[in-house]
């Protein structure tokens, strides 16, 4: 049956769409990883590395929504970051679950609107911003627990300039 299917190559706009979706999903997963590590350290600051690694392994299976729920329930972040995480979760859910809904006719007609591409790119940019905020928050947390963090902060500052 597949032999009778004519495959139509993606045009440049479709390739751009697929790349933007991939970038946004990838950066969202980076936020999930940052949250998992942050939750692990903040909820287990005095544990051994081995015990913390066990906790991290369990946390890494959490969805973004579950991780955000834990962070909020445990009050691990300030209200501003909690609100940003909730707003980001709504955007991520749209990207993963509802991108096609409401855009079916445009997709079928090969008409991908610039506003759609901009919305996907904004999710990617927001994910990157939130990841940075979580990383700096974690450095501050570790510093508050007596850990020497200037080199880590300098490395993160250098990474974020480029």
Account of the protein in words:
With 162 residues, this protein is an all-alpha fold. The protein has one domain (2-161). It is built from 7 helices and no strands. It has helices spanning 12-43, 49-59, 64-73, 79-98, 104-108, 114-144, 150-161. α3 (64-73) runs antiparallel to α4. It is elongated and about 65 Å long. The model has no long low-confidence stretch (mean pLDDT 89).
Please give a quick description of this structure.
With 162 residues, the protein is an all-alpha fold. Helix content is 75%, strand content 0%. Helix 1 runs parallel beside helix 6.
Total domain units = 1
What's the overall average pLDDT, rounded?
89
Low-pLDDT ranges: none
Query: Could you say which overall geometry the principal axes of the C-alpha atoms support?
Result: elongated
N-to-C SSE string, H for helix and E for strand: HHHHHHH
- Strand tally: 0
Distance between the termini: 50 Å
The percent range for strand residues is under 5%
- What's the helical proportion of residues? over 70%
Count, helices: 7
Main pleated-sheet profile = none
Structural class by SSE content: mainly alpha
Instruction: Report the radius of gyration as a whole number of Å.
Output: 19 Å
